[in-house]
Each structure stands twice: as C-alpha cells, then as structure tokens.
Design brief:
Blueprint: H1 2-12, E1 30-33, H2 48-53, E2 57-59, E3 62-65, E4 68-74, E5 87-91, E6 100-104, H3 107-111, E7 122-124, H4 125-132, E8 142-146, E9 159-162, E10 166-167, E11 171-176, H5 180-190, H6 193-202, H7 210-215, E12 227-228, E13 231-235, H8 236-248, H9 255-260, H10 278-295, H11 300-308, H12 326-340
Parallel strand pairs: 4-10
Antiparallel strand pairs: 1-11, 2-3, 3-4, 4-7, 5-6, 8-9, 8-11, 12-13
Length: 342
C-alpha cells in the first residue's frame, strides 16, 4: 500500500528538480549548500573564553567589540521544525565523545520573545557573510534542514527558518530566488506529513542527501498563486505563509524575516512577532498538514492511512490538554477544509 500511495502522489505532484531536461527544470530556482565543516573549519571557531580575553562582550547570543561581531554557530541539533530555538548546547568536557549536549528550551523560555539559544562556538560576521556569498550584508533569514535522520524517526524531514548566523555542515541551507513569502510555502511543504511520507520511502540510510530531496514530490511555486480552495478570497500563498510566519517569527532575531515579508499577523511588536503558544501552534500545524494532504490529492481514506504510518501522529501533543491525537486533529481539519472547498 505504501508503494501504491507513493506512486499515486508522484503522478500528481512533480519532483523538486528534474535533471532529465535541458535546461534542468528547477522552478524554485534553488540550490543546496553548507557553510562550515565542523572539522575542516574548526580554526574559524571561537569559544567564549577566547572572545572574553579579547575584550568582546556578550549581547544576546552574540559577542561584540566596537564594530566587530562574532555570530553564534548553529548545529543541526539546535533546530526543530519551525523552531530555531529548540535547544542550546552545553559542553561536558568529561565526555570522551559527544561533549556538546543539547539543553532543550523550556516552554517559558520559548514564550520569551528575547530568549536566544547559546551554541558552543562563535564565528566572525565576515566569515558568515562569505558563507552566504552576500558580500558584507546578511539575508533576513535562511531556510535549512537537518540531513542526519532516519525513516524510523518521529519525523524524517525537519526544516526551519533560522536567523542569518553560522551553521555547521549537518544543517543544509537552501537558497531560492523566489520571494520570501513563497519560500514560506516551500518550508510548509517540506515539513508536511504528506511530504515526509514519501521521503521515508526514498531514504535508505541516515543521510538525507541533496539528490534525494531533489527527487521528492514538491509543489511548484506557481501553484501558490491559485485561489485557496477552502478560502477563495485568499491565494494559497497568503493562507499558507501567514501560518508559517506565525510559527516562525517567535523571537526578536526573526524580526528581519517578518519585516521582509511585511508580516503583521502576530500579537507583539506591531504584529511582527507572535508569542509561542502551544495550543495555537498545534492548531496551525494541523491546518498546514491537512492542507497539504488535500494539495497532494489524497482522499480521506488515503490521508488516514498515511498518518497512521507515523507513530507520532497516533499520540496527543505533549503538554496539551485533551486526548485527541495529532492524527485525529489533522483529520478533523482535513474534513473541515473538504466541506469548505469549492
């Protein structure tokens, strides 16, 4: 049944990049790249003791001295879907292996718009700018995904917007020439259960390589100009991007992205930012997942089966009242959107 459903999705949704055409079909105009290799580029990294000895002072999670700034270096384990503050890194020097241990961000810290996670390394702004190939300026944000994963994990594809900082090589960056609002839709697609289901069928080991992502069925950017089937007054771009920005712009370091997207749908900073609220986030995620089940052309039976293949979908959201599972919540929204579709 997995094979039949996967084949049906491929018949309806094109792959991200087609290399069997000349020129190569790459509607998203994107490229994948990594910034810093944790071993080969280690000489670029600075630790807090080094920077303090050079008279740098801490400002948020950045070290500053005059006009010079050292930016944090994010590792993949610090990021989760729509969450650039999932965890900081604590160094346990007594460990022979894995000295950098994650320190998960609490609900209270997530609710603090000014809370920022701390890495174990920092790197100069100029080196980060070189990594982005943007000269002296930095982009408002960057999209990326974790490349170390498994088909048996709770989720296989985990992607997020993250501030323009340094990144180690296991957080793969995605550059696209499309508008940031449209890129919000790409992020929503990558994080959907519908997309993840196919990713699991393609993954043979523990690395989500570029060539695998290129082969996965991904809605093309022009689809988002269409009217939203369940909200005809809005385009799909408007409906999806508003929800992605509410999920993503939860801290002051995401203000550049909010301003670039002219986002005003939040509850703080003139609508530019949105406080982290677990129930609201669960509702937004259910709406996005239900939407992509429809956009991938699944009927109710197919949607229910697809969700049943994820263990996490059979569980309720941790920390939330009620006994409804994640999958049941998504299917409720799926039915609601089907009733409203024109």
């Amino acid at each position: 049944r997995d094979a039949e459903l996967t084949r049906a999705i491929y018949k309806r949704v094109p792959v991200l990049i087609r290399r069997d055409r000349k020129p190569i079909a790459n509607e998203w105009k994107l490229k994948f790249y990594t910034m810093f290799h944790q071993t080969n580029d280690a000489e670029l990294f600075a630790e807090p003791a080094d920077l303090k000895a050079k008279k740098y002072t801490l400002d948020g999670n950045r070290f500053v001295k005059g006009k010079k700034t050292y930016l944090p270096v994010y590792e993949a384990k610090m990021v989760q879907a729509y969450d650039h503050r999932a965890a900081g890194v604590l160094v346990d020097a007594s460990n022979w292996m894995r000295q950098g241990q994650t320190a998960d961000t609490s609900e209270a810290d997530h609710s603090d718009l000014r809370f920022e996670v701390f890495p174990r390394y920092w790197v100069s702004t100029s080196e980060v700018a070189n990594g982005f190939d943007t000269g002296t300026s930095l982009p408002p944000a960057v999209m990326g995904f974790k490349d170390i994963t498994s088909a048996t994990n709770r989720r296989t594809m985990i992607a997020s917007f993250v501030p323009a900082v340094g990144f180690t090589n296991h957080f793969v960056l995605i550059h696209s020439d499309q508008s940031w609002r449209i890129q919000c839709c790409l992020l929503a697609n990558l994080n959907s259960f519908a997309y993840d289901f196919v990713a699991r069928q393609k993954l043979g080991a523990v690395t989500l390589n570029y060539f695998i992502v290129e082969q996965l069925p991904t809605l093309p950017p022009h689809r988002y100009a269409e009217r939203c089937p369940w909200d005809p007054k809005r385009t799909l771009e408007e409906w999806i991007s508003e929800r992605v920005l509410k999920l993503s712009c939860t801290a002051v370091d995401m203000l550049p992205l909010a301003e670039t997207c002219d986002f005003t749908g939040g509850d703080a900073e003139g609508g530019r930012l949105n406080h982290w609220k677990s129930q609201e986030r669960a509702d937004l995620l259910a709406e996005l997942d239900a939407a992509y089940l429809h956009l991938y052309g699944l009927d109710r039976d197919e949607a229910e089966y697809l969700l049943s293949t994820f263990k996490i979908a059979g569980k309720s959201d941790p920390g939330l009242p009620g006994t409804r599972s994640v999958g049941e919540s998504i299917l409720d929204v799926f039915d609601h959107l089907a009733m409203k579709s024109v």
